[in-house]
Amino acid sequence: MVRYPTIFLLLVMAASLTAQKPGPDERLARIEENTISLKESSKKTDERIEAMQTTLRGLQDRVITVDSQNKIIIGIALAAFTIGLSFLIWLWRKFETSLQQNFKDQDRLMLEKIYQKISAPSAPTTTAKGA
Length: 131
Prior knowledge:
mainly alpha; about 0% strand
């Protein structure tokens, strides 16, 4: 007993064997059609490549322009940073000098007060005898 899938496969194989194969004229026509199609797609591909190359050249010009502009901007930013940092260092030194002077003044005032207390004549102490 033969199963249904096997019968189906046999029928498909028989149909493919009996199918007419294209003649030489039909093959030539298909080859010509394929050749024409390939030439058209080749032209389109060449056009796309040319458009991409043009775009790439334009982008390279822009990159060079932007690169030189970026170098100028980076140079200006670096100069501004250097000037700002120098100014902050100068301010810190002034502040530090001012703080040292204030501490010296406070120390001097404190020493003067201590000296005045030490050198001031002390009041005579009286003792009360029997009341």
